[in-house]
Amino acid sequence: MPGGRLTQQERQQIALGLADSLPYAEIGRRLDRPTSTITREVMRNGGPTAYRADLAHRATEHRAHRRRKAAPRDANRPPQEYGRDAEAVREYEETFTTVFMQSGLPKMTARVLAGLYTTDAGSLTASELAGRLQVSPASVSKAVAFLEGQGLVRRERDERRRERYVVDDDVMYQSMMASARATAHLSEVARQGVGVLGPDTPAAARLENIARFVDFVSESIARAADQAREILHTKPGGTSDSVT
Asked: In sequence order, what are the beta bridge partners of 163?
């Protein structure tokens, strides 16, 4: 039933849908399930090419068993702030993680980024992240190193000299600008090929078309990112920087 756990029969239908190359949205429509449920189910169980209904069902049963065993330990954790539903928050973080994985991030890196995004402070120490995700500090460190290299996370020292990993309010702006710069670099390389291959050759014409297309896209990304940060950036409480 919609909203409940996926049944083994539903998982078999998902596997059949993947075999037929159906989009997640269509599989969800046929099962009367949200697209996010199908996406999360597939991504946490091997992805679209490796998904197996029986293995996914057993893995889900195993995770549920582990959560039941961990309940006494979890009960000692501080309650969620603002009266949040802890289970709903956990499910949302899994969905957020799945979205990042679909964009190309490794699973642990995606989990770390989702964990940072969903904290009110926007920062956590390595030990806090490790405890929150129930993983080793080494796994967290490797993931953070990757995110830092992409400009998605930065490090700072708090008053106790502990290293904290931070996502700034304009992290998406920085990410978009980094994407624009990378795209612009592709244009430069393509135009180098025009000179190497000869300006009047079919190969050079193809590279020039690539460069023009990439120029337009990178400039559009940078312009849209600047406008969005200026107009749409919101502060806690729902206020905006825009002038009415």
From this structure: 157
